[in-house]
């Protein structure tokens, strides 16, 4: 029986992931701001309270190893994969819609920059 060999993230991948996280955070902030202004221009946000996160289900890659090395991803025991924490989209409202828009933009940015699939996942508060 063969065993799964651990994958180590090299310095080049860690640097690439660090840059992608910065871009993803920026994309999430811009998307959240634009969505809020388009839907609640007076600043009175009325929405379901909730959270949204970026996840990846690719557990055996240099990118995921780099996310773990940078301590921005936690394993998902219930479903497999990893959830990213530490992305700050600057959202000052408990709006599930704004959270989802930001996480989708960040996930899209990470997917494009890193060549690994990232997804938005949300839950009501």
Overview features:
125 residues; alpha+beta; 4 strands; 45% helix; elongated
Description:
The protein has one domain. It is 45% helix and 15% strand. It has helices at residues 11-39, 62-69, 96-114; strands at residues 50-56, 73-75, 82-84, 119-124. Strand 2 (73-75) and strand 3 (82-84) form a beta hairpin. Helix 1 (11-39) crosses helix 2 and helix 1 packs antiparallel against helix 3 (96-114). The longest helix has 29 residues, at 11-39. It is elongated and about 60 Å long. It starts with 10 loop residues before the first helix and ends with a strand.
Topology of this structure?
Elements: H1 11-39, E1 50-56, H2 62-69, E2 73-75, E3 82-84, H3 96-114, E4 119-124
Antiparallel strand pairs: 1-3, 1-4, 2-3
Helix pairs in contact: 1-2, 1-3
Q: Give a count of the beta strands, DSSP E runs of length 2 or more.
A: 4
Radius of gyration: 16 Å
Secondary-structure element order, as H and E? Answer: HEHEEHE
Structural class by helix and strand composition: alpha+beta
Q: What assembly state would you assign to the polypeptide chains in this entry?
A: single chain
Q: What do the pLDDT scores average to?
A: 94
Distance N to C terminus: 44 Å
Q: In percent, how helical is the residue content?
A: 40-55%
Give the strand content: 15-25%
Low-confidence stretches: none
Brief digest:
It contains 3 helices and 4 strands; from the N terminus they run αβαββαβ.
